[in-house]
Amino acid sequence: MANILDLLMDGDNVRKNNQNISRPYIFYHICLFISSILTPGTIFLLILGAIITAFPSIEPWAALLFNGLPVAIFIISIFLAKEDTQLLLAAIFSTIYSLVMLVVLIGLLKEGIESQLCSVTTVFFCFVAGVFILAAIMHPKEFSCILHGLLYFLAVPSMSMLLIFYSVGNMHNVNWGTRESKVDNNDGSSAKMIQRQFLGQSCSIGDWCR
Questions:
Q1: What is the mean pLDDT of residues 146-151?
Q2: CA distance 203 to 210
Q3: Is residue 102 part of a domain?
Q4: Are 165 and 40 in contact (CB under 8 A)?
Q5: Confidence of residue 210 (pLDDT cuts 50, 70, 90)
Q6: Structural domain of 111
Q7: Is residue 30 in a domain?
Q8: Are the CB atoms for 100 and 161 separated by under 8 Å?
Q9: Does residue 191 form part of some domain?
Q10: How many domains does the chain have?
Q11: A single GO molecular function, which one (predicted)?
Q12: 3-state SS assignment for residue 52
């Protein structure tokens, strides 16, 4: 997010110095930055609504407390606790939220059956699932990755809420994340093998896209 913000704040100079950067590209990153900010709150409300749907006997304020307490504890730990403690809490809350996401799935299925697939939430869920299914069909070599979709669904709160909080609170830590690494230029056999394998191919369908 910090890199995107840096790009947006200096977007005019970046476009002048790099002809590959266009206005639509800058606009895309604006949308990406806004969605990154809204994602934690959206996931929080999604879980809250699913708990209320799956368990009508639970009062909304109780569901809000149940959902907000782990988030509040984790945010406080980011400022007060050591990094190891933060990671431990993240692992514990990720496990808890995985169980909650099972409840979310049950709530979505229940709402879909009761509304006969006419619910906005159900349509949106089917649309999101359809995007991944379509991507899997278009990339048959990686089609088996669609089997991990359930794990992706269970990990949504962890990666879209807890990870955002952790990354913002630990921006001073440069020991994790994507960093450039040295490449051994003496042995280019692996690169040449990959180049021969995918030469002239625009996607994983292979020879069909030469």
A1: 84
A2: 9
A3: yes
A4: yes
A5: very low
A6: 40-172+201-209
A7: no
A8: no
A9: no
A10: 1
A11: chitin synthase activity
A12: helix
How far apart, in Å, are the Cα atoms of 106 and each of 96, 113, 117, 153, 164? 16, 11, 14, 13, 26
Residue at 111: amino acid letter? E
Mean pLDDT for the stretch of residues 69-75:
91
- Both tokens of residue 188? 């280019």
Token digits for 87? 């990671």
- Return the pLDDT at 76: 92
Average pLDDT over residues 132-146: 88
pLDDT tens, residue by residue, 88-97: 999 999 998 8
Distances (CA, A) of 160 to 47, 55, 105: 12, 24, 17
Buried b (16+ CB within 10 A) or exposed e, 53-67: bbeeeeeeeebbeeb
82 within some domain: yes
Write 35-40 long-range contacts (CB < 8 A, 24+): 36/1, 36/4, 36/164, 37/1, 39/160, 39/161, 39/164, 40/160, 40/161, 40/164, 40/165
State pLDDT tens for residues 18-38. Answer: 878 888 888 888 888 888 888
Q: What is the pLDDT of residue 207?
A: 45
Query: Which among 120, 139, 149, 158 has a CA at the least distance from the CA of 198?
Result: 139
Q: What percent of the chain has pLDDT over 70?
A: 81
Helix residue ranges per DSSP H, 10-160: 11-17, 23-54, 60-80, 83-114, 120-138, 149-154, 156-157
